[in-house]
Amino acid sequence: MDDLRNHELLQPAHISKLLDEIIPDDSQYYMTTIIPLVTQDTDEVIVDVRDNIGGMTQAVAQGAESPMVEFRGQSQFKFTPAHFREKTVLSERDLKVIRKIGTASELAKAEDRVAEVVGGLRMRLETRIEWCKWQMVFGTLDIDQTDVQFSVDYGIPADYTPTLAGVDKWDALATADPVDDIIEWAYLFRDEGIDPEYLLFTRAVEKLLLQNTTLRELAEAHYTNTGKAEMNTARLNEMLKTFAGYAYKVYDKGYFFKMKLETPVTPASTSFIVSENPGVNTGDEVTLIHKSGSRLPGGKVKVTVTPTGLSFAHAAIGGTVTFPAGSTVRIKKRFIPDNLALLMGAVPPGTTGGTDFAEFVSTPSPYNGGIMNAQPGPFGKVVVDDDGDPPKVSVIAGISGLPVLYHPTCNLIATVY
């Protein structure tokens, strides 16, 4: 396979170029717009929990020494970065296309094939980075896989993660008072040097607010003299800005997460073990897809699960098909859970360290530049295995790093039902 080892389309420079040319869609990956990816050349990340320096320049006597002002943040913490990496093996069909380069059209077809593979890996990597950023915003990043388990607590104060209960929950349509809740949450920001800017939640929360009795009564009282006010999303946004002080944005994007079955699921079994739990909750619906494919009769089944770590309990699926280990367990997840509402803040200009409340810090990886010259940032690598059975070419993509939170009181995350 020497011709492939030296192939122009499989060189690190070409793979890196393909990675760099893929620009994530801001509408899909919202956090790319507010949490930048930065690089750091150390294996251990040291983070200042930043504070707004504030205050005023001090008065001094003429000829006296200037007083010292401390710019460092409230505290410091350090962590060892996580490593996210995976590969895909080019099929024989891919390799035939890549080998056969003669005309310009054949070269273009081969380039498209490699770009498609690299693009798929990059989008999966972007989804993982986006997911990590959201978990940081919520306060805890947990990785629970069969071979990797760790947890990062970002130290968000309890006041900034309120949970509504009883008649105050927003799904209690007749009694909940969202305007009062939002005003109370915004009051917390007064002493933190952070300015709340807007609300952020999914369509599920928006739907509850459109049906809320208090908001509908406000609409009737302030927008019509007939007692019949139309309630729609534009009016709801205007009302929340008028009465609570903040407009809202809807972010309903998500992703399909695929896990692997570690144990078979028979028609009578009532539990199974998966390779990773990305945050599946009690009552979530997952789809079992047979290892031989969903076209197999009965090879695709939906089940409602109760997870405990990597073990998922469920009702018996019945039928006649057994899903063997290695089959797929798929779930559609949203980056923001449907039961959360966020009040997003902004770090004011002049704050020590800048106005970014958080960053994703990427650290060096030997997959990016080699063991002796490891570099930070997203990476792509090609491995040609001449001695494999069969010989194969693998494309690897990944990143080393984790998000860091400089301002734990920049955003408020409320569980509203």
In short:
The chain is an alpha+beta fold and 417 residues long. The protein has helices at residues 2-5, 12-21, 92-99, 104-138, 178-187, 203-211, 213-223, 233-244; strands spanning 37-39, 45-49, 75-79, 82-89, 140-144, 149-153, 195-201, 248-250, 254-260, 271-273, 285-289, 300-308, 311-314, 328-334, 340-346, 358-362, 379-385, 392-405, 411-415. 24% of the residues lie in helices and 27% in strands.
Structure description:
The chain has 417 residues and is α+β, with helices and mostly antiparallel strands. The chain folds into 3 domains: 2-53 and 72-153 and 348-404, putative capsid protein of prophage fold; 158-250, no CATH class; 254-333, Elongation Factor Tu (Ef-tu), domain 3 (Beta Barrel), CATH 2.40.30.180. Helices cover 24% and strands 27% of the residues. It is built from 8 helices and 19 strands. The chain has helices at 2-5, 12-21, 92-99, 104-138, 178-187, 203-211, 213-223, 233-244, and strands at 37-39, 45-49, 75-79, 82-89, 140-144, 149-153, 195-201, 248-250, 254-260, 271-273, 285-289, 300-308, 311-314, 328-334, 340-346, 358-362, 379-385, 392-405, 411-415. The strands form 5 sheets. It has a 6-stranded antiparallel sheet, with no helix packed on it. The chain starts with a helix and ends with a strand.
Order of helices and strands: HHEEEEHHEEHEHHHEEEEEEEEEEEE
The count of helical stretches stands at 8
Mean pLDDT: 85
* Intertermini distance: 58 Å
Reading off the top of the CATH hierarchy, the class of the largest domain is best stated as Alpha Beta
Structural class: alpha+beta
> What coarse outline follows from CA principal-axis ratios?
globular
Architecture of the largest domain, CATH level 2? Super Roll
Per CATH, what is the topology of the largest domain? putative capsid protein of prophage fold
Supply the number of structural domains: 3
Going by CATH, the homologous superfamily of the largest domain would be putative capsid protein of prophage domain like
Sheet bearing the most strands, described? 6 strands, antiparallel
